[in-house]
User: Which sequence fits this backbone?
């Protein structure tokens, strides 16, 4: 538990907002919001409209990826993502025990229908992220898994739209 807390504190130090008012770093950060607002509103938007949208984005406190998730949800008739700190589950063991009791029935038409719907939704999310948000997804080819190396990946997510993911294996 202490190790996890320490890892979280180290990660927060890396991604915590710094005082950048009046610095080149602050100007670059604001320019990124402006570029994102211009991309969102299009070429016909006035400078004032773009500046107002950029300020809204900056004031929201949400990352570009979080705003993208909300935009995807809005486009698909869903509510925005509720961003909260995760808490330990009080009934995790009960859920795990019930899951272990479930029957594995991959040929059941209802199960196949559920997985087909999930796959379709993931495909839609992928298309939104890569086409509308301009994200570049790259498979993780280094040793280990990217999710276990918090010191390596948070700065990348804070400054770019490149995402790496564990390749895994194809299930049959």
Assistant:
């Amino acid at each position: 538990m202490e190790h996890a807390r320490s890892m979280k504190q180290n990660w927060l130090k890396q991604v915590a907002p710094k005082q950048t008012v009046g610095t080149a770093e602050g100007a670059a950060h604001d320019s990124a919001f402006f570029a994102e607002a211009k991309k969102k509103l299009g070429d016909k938007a006035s400078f004032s409209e773009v500046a107002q949208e950029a300020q809204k984005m900056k004031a929201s406190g949400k990352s570009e990826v979080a705003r993208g998730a909300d935009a995807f949800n809005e486009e698909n008739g869903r509510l925005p993502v509720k961003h909260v700190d995760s808490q330990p589950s009080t009934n995790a063991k009960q859920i795990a025990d019930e899951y272990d009791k479930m029957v594995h029935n991959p040929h059941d038409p209802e199960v196949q229908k559920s997985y087909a719907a999930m796959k379709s939704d993931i495909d839609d999310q992928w298309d939104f992220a890569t086409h509308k948000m301009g994200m570049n997804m790259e498979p993780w080819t280094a040793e280990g898994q990217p999710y276990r190396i918090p010191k390596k990946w948070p700065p990348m997510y804070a400054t770019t739209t490149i995402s790496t993911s564990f390749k895994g294996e194809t299930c049959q």
Residues 109-132 form the longest helix (24 residues). Residues 37 and 54 are 5 Å apart (CA to CA).
